[in-house]
Design brief:
nine-stranded mixed β-sheet; binds manganese (II) ion
């Protein structure tokens, strides 16, 4: 066992993690060294933009059903157990980790010291051990990067061991199948195996912070992007996957705080958990998303993309491996960023939803009660193409716009957000980045240009003096005009040729909202319940 690279003076994989008789250990390698190893190992190729392109193999997305949390004294009364937060035995964790240790004997590993939380009050040191150079580089891109001096004296609080090539045996290990991601809040460890999908590493730490920060520090943790305007006003963009957090937070007129995970504390600090972005690249173009396009250069990692035949030029329209093609890059690949990645109490919050039924208005202003109702509902739609077997659009309700990553009961996050919206008097907007002019197969996705114009108008106060009208079903207040947006798209009913069909579809969606909310009705105030849509009969 030989060790290379920048290793801190106290770092000891044998003492800290029980990892013995490994092959070589590569500590805190630079992106250039990791790209070189990726290519030498036949794991990736260099594209003509300078980014390295890799394939994540069998898994091209997270596997929520294989995500477990160790059930023990730390978690048993605090975690909201169920289909999302699945229990794993502490003894089984030990046994499985022992098998991982045995598996890693003689194998080369990459070790990285990193941290989460850009606000020093919440800084969380993480040591990541991976069996692949590019998953280690992903950790470099996505987490915050310590200086050389900080590495010298680094003390990890959390450890992630990602043995991506280790396959579990459900009979022996108690997993569901051969892949797994298991969080142990007592040992402060995440173990990942059987999947090379990098998002498991990032969302593992997100889940950790979604437990620790609200539970122990009274900080609201959020699945949202954030940016800051010229006069220092912060905006947050909540939304489920594919609704536009990353796309809409990249704005040449506003500095980026982060594209996916943030905390908001009692003193008004809004801070990024991460040090990088993880953008979708399907149909990416330089015209529509210039900042993301330009960020794809040396240091970026492209996942599961296709190429223009016979070249090393990415073809972003190629979804033949997956619709979920991605790129990760350190946040400094974007020109206008906040440094450090911290803002203040937001003035505006946007809830993004991609409504495939084309019935929600492209922009509406929510009352405080509606804001709580929609936050707890967490509605979006999944359309055909992204997952096998989905031909019709499907409604998705994911509490707090991030249920898969939330170990606590949604009420905890909702209560923290509700108090902040109240005390800071924040404007809350619902933005439909989905369909208009009919549902999925008839209408079309609202143009990104219009969505951007609506958000700009909300942020600059241009909507303040405009008259709003309210629709009959969702009771949402829609502006009657908006700069740089054709007036007729502002009210979705106007964009449908068949008004009766609109009413039917809208009522149908309203029904699903109501049904979904049944789980949360108990323990929710009458005012918030009154913000439910009305089902017309
Ligand atoms: P994740 O949580 O998975 O990172 P996300 O919320 O960050 O998801 P984006 O990566 O921003 O989602 O994806 C939004 C996708 O939808 C992009 O590919 C974008 O080009 C496309 N899109 C099309 N029309 C719009 C629109 N009107 N507003 C926002 N995005 C749009
Ligand atoms: Mn994103």
């Amino acid at each position: 066992m030989e060790e290379f690279g920048k290793r801190g003076s106290n770092a000891n994989l044998k003492e800290d993690l029980g990892l013995k008789n490994l092959g070589n250990v590569y500590w805190n390698m630079s992106p250039a060294e990791l790209v070189e190893d990726t290519i030498l190992l036949g794991e990736g190729i260099l594209t003509d933009s300078g980014a390295v392109a890799i394939n994540t193999g069998k898994f091209t997305g997270r596997s929520p059903e294989d995500r477990f949390i160790v059930f023990d004294d730390t978690t048993k009364d605090a975690v909201w157990w169920g289909k999302i937060n699945k229990k794993f035995d502490s003894d089984k964790f030990d046994a499985l980790y022992n098998r991982i240790k045995a598996y890693l004997v003689g194998k080369d590993v990459y070790a990285r010291d990193a941290y989460a939380c850009a606000d020093d009050n919440y800084r969380t040191n993480i040591r990541v051990i991976t069996d692949l150079p590019w998953s280690n580089m992903f950790a470099y891109n996505m987490f915050l990067r310590p200086t050389d001096e900080e590495i010298e004296n680094f003390t990890p609080e959390w450890h992630i061991v990602a043995a991506t090539n280790f396959l579990a045996d459900p009979e022996i290990d108690g997993t569901r199948q051969e892949n797994f991601a298991i969080i142990d809040f007592t040992r402060k460890m995440i173990i990942i195996g059987g999947t090379k999908y990098t998002g498991e590493i990032k969302k593992g730490i997100f889940s950790v912070l979604n437990f620790v920060l609200p539970h122990e520090r009274n900080v609201l943790s959020m699945h949202c992007s954030a940016n800051v305007g010229k006069d220092g006003d912060t905006a947050l963009f909540f939304g489920l996957s594919g609704t536009g957090k990353t796309t809409l937070s990249s704005d040449p007129d506003r500095r980026l705080i982060g594209d996916d995970e943030h905390g908001w504390d009692e003193n008004g600090s809004v801070f990024n958990f991460e040090g990088g972005c993880y953008a979708k690249t399907i149909d990416l173009s330089a015209e529509k998303e210039p900042q993301i396009y330009e960020a794809i250069k040396f240091g970026a990692i492209l996942e599961n993309i296709g190429f223009v035949d016979g070249t090393s030029t990415p073809d972003y329209s190629d979804g033949s491996i997956t619709q979920n093609t991605r790129v990760s890059y350190p946040i400094y690949h974007i020109d206008n960023i906040m440094e450090p990645s911290v803002g203040r109490n937001p003035r505006n919050i946007f809830f993004l939803t991609a409504d495939a039924f084309g019935v929600l208005p492209p922009i509406s202003k929510l009352t405080k009660e509606q804001a709580m109702y929609h936050f707890i509902s967490g509605y979006t739609a999944k359309v055909a193409g992204t997952e096998d077997g989905i031909t019709e659009p499907q409604t998705v309700f994911s509490a707090c716009f991030g249920a898969p990553f939330l170990p606590l009961h949604p009420a905890k996050y909702a209560e923290l957000l509700g108090n902040k919206i109240e005390s800071e008097n924040v404007n809350v907007w619902l933005i439909n980045t989905g369909w208009s002019g009919g549902e999925y197969d008839v209408g079309s996705r609202i143009s990104l240009k219009y969505t951007r114009a609506m958000i700009t108008a909300a942020l600059t106060g241009e909507l303040d003096n405009i008259e709003f009208v309210t629709d009959d079903i969702f009771n949402l207040a829609m502006p009657t005009a908006c700069p740089n947006v054709p007036t007729e798209v502002l009210n979705p009913r106007n964009t449908w040729e068949d008004k009766a069909a609109y009413d039917r579809k809208a009522s149908h969606l309203a029904q699903q909202f109501v049904k979904n909310f049944e789980t949360f009705a108990q323990g929710t105030s009458a005012e918030i319940l009154a913000a439910a849509p009305k089902v017309l009969v």
